Amino acid sequence: MAPRKKGEKKRKTVEVTETKELQHSDAEPSDGSSREEKMAQKRKIKSKKKYIGAHVSISGGIWKAVESSVAIGGHAFALFLGSQRSWTRPALDTAAAVKFQEACAQHGFDPIHILPHGSYLMNCGSPKEDVFSKSQAMLVDELSRCSALGLSQFNFHPGASIDSTPEKCMEKIAQAINHAHQQTPAVITVLENMSGQGSTIGGQFSELRSIIDRVRDKTRVGVCLDTCHAFAAGYDISPPGGVKNILDEFDHVVGLHYLRAVHLNDSKGKLGCHLDRHEDIGCGQIGITAFREIVNEPRMDNIPLILETPGRPGFEYAEQIELLYSLCEKKKKN
Fold first, then answer.
1. Assigned superfamily of 48-329
2. What is the enclosing helix (H) or strand (E) of 306?
3. 252: annotated active-site residue
4. For the chain, which residues make up each domain, given as ranges?
5. Looking at 36, 236, 308, 316, which residue is catalytic?
6. Tens digit of pLDDT for each residue in 312-332?
7. Which of 39, 103, 192, 193 is the most buried (most CB within 10 A)?
8. Most distant CA pair in the chain: distance in Å?
């Protein structure tokens, strides 16, 4: 792990102080309006090309995810399409799918700003044939659900090699994607970069590119860049100019035209720790500078920017979305 550069500790202290000030910069509404009304009002005001939101629950019906996103001031959102505890799930209810699409239309959510997230049970790179077979079948099911919901893309963790080799793992991941593409129409499979923990694949941009190279229909594959995962894998986005440098590297290795979404997460772990430990925006090792650069980076326009942070009292998703939008207006002074 690289030693801390001179002045880094001071920079982090300044960033934490700035984050706290930004969190409390807006007073509570004095007109008697509810928190939900306040967030709905704030949702009407956003940076023109930035679509920030969070991963929301589908409890009570899949259309509830839309309502939850509106309530926290989101202009994008992520969701699971079913239970995370079972390989088999009931078929998607047609009436629920219609209600979901109607809610999206009512509140102005474009499918390209909605990012369904795959089950953590899936390991499309598994050397165990039973796990690979179930994962491949689940990927087909997930893409089919996306189609029924009118969604255009689907995000998932590539997989882990376990006791196999990275090359064989990447081959199997691409095999599962190609199979799913044959079985379903249109939906784009979005690979997520990983932290490099254990035998997971996707910690390095070159591994994502290697999978993409093996996918036959390249119009149906993309990447979701997770900030915590990238930092934990050794990509330093924390200093001034860090986001630009990492995007330049991503463009060189993978290609910016494959960037479909970003997961906005600070990191509890230090640079290169390989630990997948998310922290609230501006409260971790990455710091507020990187997120300021992200929300002012033109190359991240018009794609979903999704929070997956733990949240804390007074600084939940709604407050973090509000903070990020405020950074669009408050560019750092020299």
1. Divalent-metal-dependent TIM barrel enzymes (3.20.20.150)
2. strand 304-307
3. no
4. 48-329
5. 308
6. 999 999 999 999 999 996 455
7. 193
8. 61
